[in-house]
Structure formats: structure tokens, C-alpha cells
Amino acid sequence: MKILSAEQLSEADKETIKKQNISSEELMERAATLVFNEINNRLRGAPIPIKIFCGIGNNGGDGLVVARHLIQHGYNVTVYVVNYSDKRSEDFLANYEKLKEITNNWPQVIKKEDDFPEINIGDFVIDAIFGIGLNRPIEGWVAKLVEEINHSKAFTLAVDMPSGLFADKASEKNSAIIEANYTLSFQSPKLVFFLPETMDYVGDLQVLDIGLDREFIGRIKSKTFLIGKQQALSLYLPRKKNSHKGDYGSVLIAGGSYGKIGSVLLTATAALRSGTGLCSLYIPKCGYNIIQTGLPEAMVVTDPDHEILTTYPKDFKADVVCFGMGAGTSFNTVKALKELLELMDKPVVIDADGLNILSENNDLLKLLPENSVLTPHPGELKRLVGAWKDDFHKLDLVKEFSSKYKVIVVIKGAHSLTIDRDNVYVNNTGNPGMATAGSGDVLSGVITSLIGQGYEPVNATVLGIYLHGLSGDISAEELGYEGVLAGDIAKNIGKALSKIFEKDATESDIN
Ligand SMILES: NC(=O)C1=CN([C@@H]2O[C@H](COP(=O)(O)OP(=O)(O)OC[C@H]3O[C@@H](n4cnc5c(N)ncnc54)[C@H](O)[C@@H]3O)[C@@H](O)[C@H]2O)[C@H](O)CC1
Ligand SMILES: [K+]
Fold first, then answer.
1. Which residues line ligand 1 (CB under 6 A)?
2. CA of 163 to the centre of ligand 1 (A)
3. What CATH number matches the domain at 249-499, 3.20.20.140, 3.40.1190.20, 3.40.50.170, 2.40.50.100?
4. Comparing 6-221 with 249-499, is the CATH topology the same?
5. Cα gap 311→333, rounded to integer Å
6. Where along the chain is K(+) bound (predicted)?
7. pLDDT greater than 50 at residue 511
8. Would you say the ipTM is above 0.90?
């Protein structure tokens, strides 16, 4: 699914009005009625106090439409107009009149702090103050109102976006932003919903298809995508009935050191569980018995050294090599990575200490074969691309790095991002249970495996992250967040793959 910018959404809005020959007020009615339906389905007539805070633009207009439908269905509603300016939009005004026609309980206008109502923890707050039209941080008494809503701890549902967030740029530090429990967003999720600094404001997310023109949206050149089940399915390369292990890639996983052999064991397990035909490990001698006992399906080649990698086996033929987990950054291990990079003309996967070595030895970066995949966690990323001011600056730095070295970079996080030059793929699977030792080693194994099976490196990365997250979700369902081990994520990759073929009637449109 494309993630559209505020500008693209406004264009799609205008184009839809033209093509479907409807008024903008009709489009607002359609969008906001969907919001009402969702609320009505959940509240089912419950008499809880609903407080709707409406701005004076079209987000506020949506709020007024929702209010009208709720009142007509007998809900206990109070509407507040957050009068931050006198420039009320036409559709706001039209719906203001419509609301006054159906109730004697007219909206209360808030113009200053003294006008704030009491907001109780048991209220149901609807935030329709600002949407994608926000063009500067919220200030003054409106900022105070936002804080008041947040402090109340009342359940808060944001219409289109939590007020105070920009759709596609960073917020200033300490800005007033609604902390929503639930966000019902129109047509396309917004990029900020998935970035670490802003995702917590969104709560649970649901995207409503408000019927903006499909053909126009299809033509929009977006470089930012949310990866859901449909996209994962479209990337999958089916297996031929008439095939053998030689068809599914020979991978080599190079890494480990004394005390850190578990890391490569996890990576290799994940590679095999992801469908690799032949899996070999290149490890220091100390890991030989561990791997041969722990993973009899794998083959082992050992370094001359007992404790660390010191060289690279030049004659070893593999379709793809993964380097770095548990390897350490000793002088001779740097040499081993250099030998690998000098030899390889096919994409490699570099993780963990492989990345630390790259950031300390910048001259190695230009040896990376085109379309190699780097999978840093935030600390490793910072060492590679430098410090960033905010999430959007980080994206710019990584895009620049990806273009400069012609590599694919994963920004790991709650929503891991795959950056391939200017393209951004946002992952939407996974859970906090995956924040556990070895989870990254498993991810590298999945990506390496898929590259070995013939997936384009960017597709292997996007699908690999999706499957890794889904496997984490399956594991958390079985074991609870705290109970998940990286080994469980590796073990359940096959189940995750099967799951993308399941039809799910209740599936939300973003999963
Ligand atoms: N695009 C769609 O698919 C549809 C969107 N709808 C809803 O419309 C809003 C966007 O409405 P818009 O009037 O453009 O903007 P806002 O309501 O978010 O803001 C109003 C107005 O406020 C001014 N402003 C911006 N920042 C500030 C500030 N910090 N302080 C004071 N004033 C500010 C600025 O002039 C804005 O224009 C979208 O989110 C949807 O909810 C349609 O209803 C359906 C189709
Ligand atoms: K809002």
C-alpha cells in the first residue's frame, strides 16, 4: 500500500471530487460517516459522555458530521469548537449549520483557557482539531487544551491524525500533540504513524477507504510503501514441484567468536527454516562441536583460529554470504571481512559486528557489492551514517548512504524500514516480544536465505522483515511477549510463510 503525503492526499481529494462529480461536502460526509460507523459499531449505543473537539478547518468539519450522526443515534454528545482562527472552512460552516438544525444543544465555542470544559477519565474524546492541514506547531491556549485532553487520560479517538502531528515531517521537540488511543485515518496511513519518535501518539491504527479515485492514486508516484500481507504475497516466489535442494541456494554464514557461537547458530537455523537448500557456516574452531550438534542440517567450515575469524575461505562457493553476527571486531576479523568483500561480486548481507567493522573502516564500504544488505540496529546505524536530528533527518541520511554505496539498508525498530536508494518500505508486523537477544541474527538469516533462493535483494529484505515480524507475532501468541526467544522466531518462520496464504475475513486493510 502506498503511503501518501499530505500534498498527495489533497490532490487525490480534488481529483476525486472532479471525477466522481461530487462536492467536497459530500466527500466529507462520506469520510466522516465511516468514522461514525466505526464508533457506533464499538459503542453500540452506550450512554457514555462523548466530547468532540472540532477545529475550524475540514478536520473540524469531519468532527461536526460525526457529531450529527451520533446525536441522531441518541448518543450523549457535547461538541466544542476549538476556535483557533476565524478562517472557518466552507465545509465546516455548512456542517455547523446542519448540526444546529438537528439539536438544541449547540456547539460550545472555546476561544481561551477559561472556556475549557472539564474532561473526565470516563469520557470518550474525539479529536477533530487538526488533520493533514497542520502547517505549524500548535501554540498558546490550543496547545494547553491538547495537554488538558492528554492529562485527562480519557479514551481519545483521533480523526485522520492525532492533532499536532504533521503527516510527513518531524514535530518540534515538546510540541503539543494529542496522544490518541485510536486513530481512524483516511485512505492512506501517514508516514509519521510508523516512525519511532511519533508512533506512540497514534494508538491503534485503522485506515478507512473513503473511496478516493483509485486510478489517480494508482498513478501517484509514491516512494514510500506500507508492506502488508498482499505485498508480501506478491513478492513470494512459489516452489516448483520438480525441484531439489540445489534450487534453493547455498548460503554461507560467517561469524561467531568464543562465547558468541549462539549467534551464528540462530542465523543458520533461520536460514534453513526460511527454505535454504544448503547452509554452511564459517566459524572459529571453538564452535565446531556446538554447531554440528545443535544444527545437524548445517555444514561447518572452520577458521584456522580457535576463537575468532581471521581469514575468509577463498575457494568456498556460495550463492550468498552473510557476515558479522558474534564476530567481534579484532584486527584479524577486519582482515577476514576485507578478504570477503574483495572476493565477492554478488550481494552480501552484513550484520552486527560486520557493520561495526564497516563503520570503523570506511574504506571497506566501497568494496560492498552492489545491492548488498546492511541490517543495523539504531546504535550501529548511528556509527555508520552519523547522528541525526530527528526521524526524517535519519531517513535522509540513510537514503544518501544507500545511494552513495548502492546498498540496501534496514533501519530496525518497531516498524523496521527498508531503504533502497529513495524508496522506503515500512514493515507492519512484529511486536515488543521480539526485543530480545538474537532476534537480529534471525532476521539476517531469513534475508540471506531468500537472496540465496533467487529473490532480488530488496525483495528478500522486505519479505524477510515481514516474515520475521509475523513469526514473532505467532511466537508471542504461543508464549506471550516476555516468553519469546529468538530461537522461537526462527522456528516459526515456516508457519509465518504459510500464514500469508490464509484468507482472513476480519483482516484490517493495513495488515
Ligand atoms: N484529503 C482527504 O482525503 C479528505 C480530508 N478531509 C479532512 O480534511 C482534513 C484536512 O483539512 P484542512 O482544512 O486542509 O486542514 P485542517 O483541518 O487540518 O487544518 C485547518 C487549517 O488550520 C490552519 N492551521 C494549520 N496549522 C495551524 C496551527 N498550528 N495553528 C492554527 N491554525 C493552523 C491551516 O490554515 C489549515 O488549513 C483532513 O485531515 C481530513 O480530516 C475530508 O473531510 C475528507 C477527504
Ligand atoms: K485530528
1. 9-10, 13, 27-28, 31, 55, 57-62, 84-85, 89, 130-138, 159-160, 186-187, 212
2. 10
3. 3.40.1190.20
4. no
5. 7
6. 59, 127, 163
7. no
8. yes
